[in-house]
Design brief:
Elements lengths: L3 H5 L2 E2 L50 E7 L3 H5 L1 H9 L3 H11 L9 E3 L10 H16 L4 E3 L19 H7 L1 H8 L3 E5 L4 E8 L2 E7 L6 H13 L5 E4 L5 E2 L6 E2 L2 H11 L5 E6 L4 E8 L5 E8 L11 E7 L4 E7 L18 E2 L6 E4 L2 H5 L13 H9 L27 E5 L7 E2 L32 E4 L12 E4 L16 E2 L17 E9 L5 H4 L2 E9 H4 L10 E7 L4 E7 L6 E8 L5 E9 L4 E6 L2 E2 L4 E2 L12 E3 L1 E4 L2 E5 L2 E9 L23 E2 L12 E8 L5 E6 L2 E7 L5 E11 L2 E11 L2 E2 L3 E7 L21 E3 L2 E2 L4 E5 L8 E7 L3 E7 L4 E5 L7 E9 L4 E9 L34 H11 L4 E5 L5
Parallel strand pairs: 2-3, 3-4, 7-8, 8-11, 11-13, 45-51
Antiparallel strand pairs: 1-6, 2-14, 5-6, 6-7, 9-10, 12-13, 14-15, 15-16, 15-17, 18-35, 19-20, 20-21, 21-35, 22-32, 23-28, 23-35, 24-25, 24-32, 25-26, 26-27, 28-29, 29-30, 29-31, 33-34, 36-37, 37-40, 38-39, 38-41, 41-42, 41-43, 43-52, 44-46, 46-49, 47-48, 47-50, 50-51
Helix pairs in contact: 4-5, 6-7
């Protein structure tokens, strides 16, 4: 085995030319068994940043990193028009440069691109941008594999067709791959549509096997020959689409070609350990067992629907031979380059959401007969080092709000100025007929279906149904309308379609969505799995009626179209079109490609302050929006329709898919107000307070039997003591609640309480509190600042600790066996109590104890202060703290800045006043930091 120094130098293996073996592909019947999923190392719900780059930890492992570039199509498409004019570069180039710049310190020997290099394969400038980005890898000595995706070929329905891939092969053909990879390239098929490479890492040979989009049996045969020629070499297999992602945007799902690939190639080749793909929007993973009973990990990463067409997000796979694992991290070199004004709440250089930071177990020794020489285990934890490197220069929090399934139909943010809000959860499941009413829960503009014998469309009654099963995961409304059997008439007759409509002259038809107030239109949409361009292109899910020509809209292309509509293009892009209220000029917004079968929240927001109209897909702005426009030209009295576009008021081109709850609002909403957001019921949120007031430690005979406060009207509040529910109540319409406990809080000592507000099935984060009942008379803990002579009479170990850590408080002689209470200041926060044994007590600090300097004081049961000392609370210390997402950039308080929920001494007066209202019933509030 090469020395560690040799291992750390990237290298590729020169290999003899490969004789491609042809022959039958061995297949076995039955589906492969699924292996238990390796739980992610952490699956919090929001992106977080880490502290600025630090020294690499002491080396104790043998590992290397494989960077993976997911779909780069929008970087290529908008390089010349948007990215380069603003930045002089684009996210694709920034990713490539980051890989080259850090290839040695992160031991990155090879890079994998999973396809969709460009968005429009017929546009030469997109290929120019892509070639320029990939050349950065080549010029930097980084070999790579790349495959065509469906956007890189003319006919995505063709099976790995050379004739359909001319533009791709002109840039990434076999000769180009040989030039960039050198001896690492061991074979190509179909002039480079598929390719294979060997590279060396940590003293072993590895293979990258890259298969073309929609590859056919001849490709599988070629790939089998490659594998047969290199037995025992672990293989990372990449292709554009292998596994899919489920509607919850977390769980894996099957994909037809991916199943074919599994059956014909993967399952009976034990050397394939990992598959990588993009195509489907999101990130997920699954593990399957091959015919040898060994795990094959399959990972999907595709961020094209994130900000800036992917936000420069890429995955890093650390192959850790010492710990028999593949650790996966997700980073974005782009966000540290972005203009500050362009940053969003979800931007972060390191992401740790679902399937963004996790570990996949793989016993390399058992699988391949390898052993790791301890002398070679000199490498750092490369995953941690990569995150630190990616975060250099980052000084923003950037954590976005988490998404949660609704607890009830009322679990959404109501919006002032709502014109109409159509929901389907209270509509009976099944066929919709002319007697069905779709309620407008915000106004008086319900929708209905016209009798089918009064429409020109050749529809059938069962073409329009309401479902309570197939609904948008993050909608609070458990219903949707679904339109099936939708098709165009090839002879030019009426299309087959169905639709819902308001009455002519309903209140919503007079909505004045003008340039002064702006507007928001939002809905949940799903394309049917059987959607086709031939039958379903250029159709609308939501239309505002009236013809453009009649309304004076300047649109020579579509004079008879509705005054505004939200629909789908021939390329499966969401399209919204309306007209500026001042100029009557039409404007159009476009999303990226939309996957059939996937639910998306779509919002159109006209912000009059910025004169912009922006489309958001799942809360992320698309790249093609409109500026210098405001408001919407309308034809009063004309109806709103769901399920079709119109042409001179006649239904035309129906929506093939489902439409969920839909809302029209006469103002520009923030993304935090969109329908997928939940009501704030967290204990530290604005809707919850604990009003019961008691500012001293309770006497020994105290019995605390009731609490009261405020909350979200209609929510429920329960009180838990040591995990046991002691009482609950519903929040009244005036926002007040009062709870009489089933069993009073009594007995000397510290009593931990949790107040949990819930709405339906969803609990908010609890408001945690502590009640201290003395062994004798009640008392109020004195602030140690008023007793300087007692400083240092107690010793606290450790002096620096994380919230939630256990600390030891050593007391002077004379207190053995005494009951002692501990508090942290400035505002008193109960830390707990204990009986002195061997001169000390131990207490577990609250997990929400604020970072910074605190004075900790010890008191007898009678309220006498024994002494106090100063401590420093550091979330990064100890074992309990998780760390400030902003790291050191947030700043740490100095010795004269007491930590009070992270605020400096300049605000202590304000906090002291607030504390008087918040400290209740001898209850010293211990607020838990919100998690999203």
């Amino acid at each position: 085995m090469p020395s560690p120094a040799t291992r750390r130098a990237r290298g590729v293996l020169a290999t003899a030319s490969l004789a491609v073996a042809a022959g039958l592909i061995v297949t076995t019947g039955g589906a492969a068994a699924a292996a238990p999923q390796a739980p992610p190392r952490s699956i919090p719900s929001s992106a977080t940043s880490v502290a600025a780059a630090a020294e690499a930890p002491a080396g104790d492992r043998s590992s290397f990193v494989l960077p993976v570039l997911p779909d780069t199509q929008f970087y290529s498409r908008y390089s010349a028009s948007q990215f380069v004019p603003s930045y002089g570069t684009n996210p694709f180039q920034v990713q490539a440069k980051w890989i080259v710049d850090h290839q040695d310190e992160l031991d990155m020997p090879f890079t994998v691109h999973v396809g969709d290099v460009v968005d429009q394969e017929w546009v030469a400038t997109e290929w120019d941008a892509a070639e320029k980005a990939m050349r950065i890898l080549t010029d930097g000595g980084m070999p790579y594999s790349v495959v065509p995706g469906n956007h890189d070929v003319k006919n995505s329905g063709a099976r790995s067709s050379v004739a359909s891939s001319g533009n791709y092969l002109a840039r990434f053909g076999a000769a180009d791959l040989a030039a960039q990879a050198g001896p690492a390239l061991i074979g190509t098929f179909q002039d480079g549509l598929s390719s294979a490479y060997l590279f060396e890492a940590e003293g072993h040979t590895w293979m990258s096997l890259a298969l073309a989009w929609n590859a056919s049996d001849d490709t599988f045969a070629w790939a089998q020959g490659i594998l047969d020629a290199h037995p025992g070499v672990p293989v990372i297999l990449s292709s554009h689409a292998i596994i899919n992602i489920a509607e919850d945007q977390v769980s894996p799902a099957s994909w037809g070609w991916g199943e074919e690939l599994w059956e014909k190639l993967i399952r009976h080749n034990d050397q394939i350990i990992l598959t990588l793909n993009g195509h489907f929007h999101g990130a997920t993973s699954q593990t399957r067992l091959n015919d040898a009973g060994n795990p094959v990990h399959q990972v999907l990463t595709d961020y094209q629907m994130a900000a800036d067409g992917g936000n420069g997000i890429m995955s890093l796979f650390e192959f850790d031979l010492s710990n028999n694992a593949i650790d996966v991290e997700t980073v974005s070199p782009w966000v540290t380059v972005k203009h500050e004004a362009s940053l969003t709440s979800s931007d972060a250089p390191v992401l740790d959401g679902p399937w963004q930071s996790f570990s996949l177990p793989l016993d390399f020794g058992a699988r391949f007969g390898w052993t790791v020489d301890p002398a070679d285990e000199t490498g750092a934890d490369l995953s941690e080092l990569a995150k630190a490197i990616a975060s250099e220069g980052w000084d923003s929090d950037g954590a976005g709000a988490a998404l949660h399934p609704a607890g009830s139909p009322a679990d959404y943010i109501e919006a002032d100025g709502t014109v109409a809000h159509w929901r389907f959860g209270d509509v009976a499941e099944g066929v919709v007929d002319e007697n069905t009413v779709v309620p407008d829960i915000a106004g008086e503009s319900p929708m209905h279906r016209n009798p089918i014998d009064e429409t020109d469309a050749p529809e059938e009654l069962e073409d329009l149904t309401v479902t309570h099963e197939n609904t948008a995961f993050y909608s609070a409304d458990a219903g949707a309308s679904c339109f099936t059997n939708v098709s165009r008439d090839a002879a030019g007759g009426p299309d087959r379609l169905s639709f819902l409509t308001t009455e002519y002259g309903a209140p919503a038809t007079f909505a004045d969505l003008d340039s002064d107030a702006g507007y928001t239109i939002e809905t949940f949409l799903q394309l049917d799995a059987d959607w086709t361009e031939t039958d379903n292109r250029w159709s609308a899910a939501l239309t505002r009626g009236g013809a453009r020509e009649w309304a004076g809209i300047k649109d020579g292309s579509d004079p008879g179209a509705g005054v505004s509509w939200l629909g789908i293009s021939n390329l499966r892009e969401y399209q919204f079109s309306a007209a500026d209220a001042a100029s009557s000029n039409s404007y159009t917004l476009w999303s990226g490609e939309i996957m059939p079968g996937a639910w998306h929240h779509v919002a159109i927001v006209n912000d009059p302050a910025k004169n912009t109209v922006i489309m958001y897909v799942d809360g992320v702005p698309v790249l093609r929006n409109a500026s210098g426009v405001a408001g919407m030209v309308a034809e009063d009295y004309m109806p709103w329709l769901i399920g079709t576009s119109t042409w001179y008021t006649e239904p035309d081109h129906g929506w093939h898919g489902c439409v969920g709850e839909t809302r029209i609002v006469e103002q520009a909403l923030d993304t935090g107000e969109f329908l997928y957001n939940r009501v704030d019921i967290d204990g530290d949120g604005g809707s919850f307070t604990l009003a019961t007031d008691l500012s001293q430690v309770q006497p020994a005979d105290a019995e605390i039997a009731a609490f009261e406060g405020t909350g979200h009207a209609g929510a429920a509040v329960r009180v838990e003591v040591a995990g046991e529910v002691r009482g609950s109540a519903e929040v009244a319409s005036d926002g007040r609640w009062s709870i009489a406990l089933d069993e009073a809080v009594a007995g000397s000592g510290t009593h931990e309480l949790s107040f949990v507000q819930s709405i339906g099935t969803r609990d908010g984060e609890p408001y945690e509190a502590v009640v201290v009942i003395a062994e004798d008379a009640g008392w109020t803990p004195a602030d140690p600042e008023s007793m300087p002579d007692l400083e240092g009479r107690i010793t606290i170990t450790p002096e620096t600790f994380a919230p939630g850590d256990t600390i030891t408080i050593a007391l002077p002689e004379g207190y053995e066996g005494a009951a002692i209470n501990a508090f942290a200041f400035s505002a008193p926060t109960a830390l707990g109590s204990g009986t002195v044994a061997d001169g000390a007590i131990t207490v577990t600090t609250p997990v929400t104890l604020a970072a910074g300097v605190h004075r900790v004081a010890a008191y007898t049961a009678e309220g006498e202060m024994v002494g106090w000392n100063t401590v420093f609370v550091d979330p990064a210390a100890g074992s309990a703290g998780s760390g400030d997402p902003a790291g050191e950039a947030a700043g740490s308080p100095s010795a004269d800045e007491l930590a009070v929920t992270g605020i400096t001494t300049t605000m202590l007066v304000v906090l002291a006043l607030a504390a008087a209202a918040a400290v209740v019933l001898g209850v010293f509030a211990v607020r838990r930091r919100r998690v999203g």
